[in-house]
Write a structure and sequence with these properties.
alpha/beta, 5-stranded mixed β-sheet, 13 helices, elongated
């Protein structure tokens, strides 16, 4: 069994320089430091500065550290780095990038933790906040954000609690169970209605002019009515008053509606996760008035064609096409015509 070798410390290098300046031999220096003469000889030959500077402890220590650091994986592999950064810039998360590369190559190419460490190392090394834009939530440092207090839920007519939602909707074993919510923005009155299918994770967006209850119910009916009956079974909301006229959806297009418990929007976790991912493209400070309709199409297309770990790194569009046997191109809405 081999013996453990400790690297020379800066203090030891200072002692080497002191003893060498006093005219001591290699063996005398080695004995003083309790090191082998070969280690001292190797140190002087590798890390000494060019004559006439001779051996300088600080320079030698810097040289030794630089020799041992091989760089991050992505820093050493330009082609892989370009591939990873290219996919991150499309809105993929590090887990999606790592999982898709593994699926395409048949073996692990890089781990998601390696990607995270590389991005955060670049943030610290370059002091350039733009690097955080490669991450799904654009967080400058790791950790959970503090939770903000929420207003109490209001009473809603004909409200059915989520506990009564079919178990097929909860375990995602049956297609046609949807969740709906609004994305809000810093400019007053601007919002986007988001619709999310739980089984395939397919998501649709539509820009709205109002969040009043009646226009919201009308928009949802227009979005879902063109679908076959087997793909419009239920719709789940939070307790916002914009969904107060949900009962209009019971007759046409024939949807059962359910509501999360008060202060529990996480119970419709599919759409909450989708909105969090869509913030990559539609940040809170976005001015919707300056966006072209094709921009929303492009954003939702990128979302629906990004691989998901929960789908074995297939895309929502692929799953919706293969498993549900229903062709739905990624468009900003489901309106027919």
């Amino acid at each position: 069994m081999g013996s453990r070798y400790d690297q020379l410390t800066l203090d030891e290098r200072c002692k080497i320089a002191e003893l060498q300046g006093a005219g001591c031999s290699l063996r005398q220096i080695a004995a003083a430091l309790d090191r082998s003469p070969s280690s001292i000889s190797r140190e002087l030959s590798r890390n000494a500065a060019h004559p006439p500077a001779g051996y300088r402890p600080a320079f030698a220590h810097q040289q030794a550290r630089a020799r041992r650091w091989s760089g991050a994986r992505l820093a050493r592999a330009p082609a892989l780095r370009d591939t990873v950064l290219g996919q991150l810039s499309q809105g993929w998360s590090p887990a999606q990038v790592a999982g898709r590369l593994k699926r395409d190559h048949g073996h692990t190419v890089i781990g998601c933790e390696t990607i995270y460490r590389f991005i955060y190392a670049q943030l610290k090394r370059t002091n350039d906040g733009a690097w955080r834009r490669y991450l799904p939530r654009a967080k400058g440092r790791r950790g959970r954000r503090s939770r903000k207090s929420r207003s109490p839920a209001l009473a809603i007519k004909h409200r059915v609690p989520i506990e009564k939602r079919p178990v097929q909707a909860q375990n995602r074993s049956q297609a046609g169970h949807w969740e709906a919510d609004f994305m809000l923005f810093s400019r007053l009155g601007q919002s986007v209605l988001v619709l999310h299918e739980r089984t395939s994770r397919l998501t649709a967006l539509v820009k709205t002019d109002s969040r009043r209850a009646q226009p919201t119910a009308t928009t949802l009916a227009e979005l879902l009515r063109p679908l076959p009956e087997r793909l419009r079974r239920s719709l789940t909301f939070d307790n916002g008053t914009e969904f107060a006229e949900h009962y209009r959806l019971h007759q046409s297009p024939g949807l059962a509606t359910f509501f999360c418990a008060p202060h529990c929007p996480w119970q419709k976790g599919g759409i909450e996760n989708a909105i969090g991912r869509l913030r990559r493209f539609l940040r809170r400070k976005t001015n919707l008035d300056t966006l072209h309709p094709h921009d929303l199409t492009r954003f939702i297309h990128a979302y629906n064609h990004a691989p998901r770990q929960c789908l074995d790194f297939q895309t929502p569009a692929e799953v919706f096409s293969k498993v549900l046997h229903f062709k739905w191109e990624s468009t900003p809405s489901l309106r027919s015509g």
